[in-house]
Amino acid sequence: MDITTYLPDELGARAKAAGVKFSALLRDAVTMDLVQREAFETLTEQMQVHELVAITDDAGNSYDAQLYGVALAHNDVSDATAYALENGGLAVHVIEDSRTTDYNRLYIHGQGGYDSSQSEWLSQWFSTEQVIQIMKKLGKRAVIKIGRRKA
Question: How many domains does the chain have?
Fold first, then answer.
């Protein structure tokens, strides 16, 4: 299939000078987009309501939550479960993390699509291998930061 696309003159000139391979770039982008769409469609078919009881917020208030999503992974050490949400966000439900004072907490990250920042966010509760598998289920490539001190 032949496709015509528009690039502003300056951007087109810079890309041409840099030797950008437009055909390969577009093919890879379309392939990745389709993989992500198919992964999300598969997850959406599996989504259901998860009843989470006696969640505690930052102020110490307790509430019950009805989380609509699909469980992606569980970590026994942190006693955390990651969920993909219908709105494109992620949730992590921590029952009791023996490494911290977390007890029955619910953390939400982003909405409107999965991105590489979620890899780092998930690494608070999940091993590198689990983060890679979670992102793979989302149709994304995990970004693991190595050799950097935590702020």
Answer: 1
